[in-house]
TrEMBL record:
<keyword id="KW-1133">Transmembrane helix</keyword>
<keyword id="KW-0812">Transmembrane</keyword>
<dbReference type="Pfam" id="PF07332">
    <property type="entry name" value="Phage_holin_3_6"/>
</dbReference>
<feature type="transmembrane region" description="Helical">
    <location>
        <begin position="86"/>
        <end position="107"/>
    </location>
</feature>
<feature type="transmembrane region" description="Helical">
    <location>
        <begin position="56"/>
        <end position="80"/>
    </location>
</feature>
<keyword id="KW-0472">Membrane</keyword>
<protein>
    <submittedName>
        <fullName>Phage holin family protein</fullName>
    </submittedName>
</protein>
<dbReference type="InterPro" id="IPR009937">
    <property type="entry name" value="Phage_holin_3_6"/>
</dbReference>
Amino acid sequence: MTTTVNRRPPGDVGEPSVGDLVKQAAEQLSDLVRGEMRLAQAELTRKGRQAGIGGGLFGGAGVVAHAGFLTLVAAGVAALALVLPVWASALIVAGALFLAAGVMAALGRKRTREAAPLMPEEAISGVRTDVERIKERARR
């Protein structure tokens, strides 16, 4: 026994068959998805390029700011050298910098420990709640 699927009756040339329409819809959907993917890729490439340039400029600003900070430190040493020997003024400025670095490190360590563990606990909890609700509704 043979069956004919998606065949038009003889003499019916005006309307496409359901199979033709489904095939055409699938092709159009595929073309649409490919086009959207190409558009997204082009957009991400453009945005990535801009982000890279911005990151490079931030890095350059950091280098220049670091040089400015070092110059400021040298000026502090020179100012203290007016009333103390140069070695003593350099030692005082270095001690102040190490003290500031220690305070910053302690604060950074505290913040890092507060952030641990690095898992999205709220999101995981939400997903577990959703799964439980779905299971409850499925049981009913």
